[in-house]
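SAMPLE LOG
Freezer: B-3
Tube label: C17
Construct: single chain, 204 aa
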Amino acid sequence: MYIPAHYKNENLEEVRQFIKDNAFGILVNQLEGKPWATHIPLELHTDAEGKEWLLGHVAKANPQWQAFSEEQEVLCIFNGPHAYISSSWYKEEEVPTWNYIAVHVYGRLSCLSEEELLFSLEKLIEKYEKDSDHPIAMSDLSKETMRQVRGIVGFKISIDDIQAAYKLSQTRKEDHPEISRELERRGGANQCAMAGLIRRQSEE
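STRUCTURE (predicted):
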């Protein structure tokens, strides 16, 4: 991914937390010579040896898994808030732009054993059920329901490289107050989240 130097985030702790908070990503590999992408949860996991992995699964009906190979590098994309930035918010004339956060993770993929797949599903359910009024656990599910696991393929990705672009108007610090105000005035979720990120950056 092309990242201008002032937008490159090399704070791996911050980037890891971003991946955990924005885990609905895109898995990209090659299928019959063409790029193939699937939108799925990709959970960051650290094993007992301290090795980091991305864990996920796809439906067996999805042909993507048939091209899974430890020899082929895959790409996982995670997106955060993004927003159009009007140059009318600047003190000096300039072209408009777009602010965003994007993280690309590269690695080698291997399929999970049945035991590993069940572990990853249990952790996935625990993570997203914890704030429910009546959370479910995988142990609550009947044998009939659990048979659906046969219809998915679990995988883990050994992480080789993480690239993070945080484009937050770093080169327009004098304009941060106006940019933040205008984004919040628009009121959308992406705009308000971006305004908060710009304000936090100004305070650092």
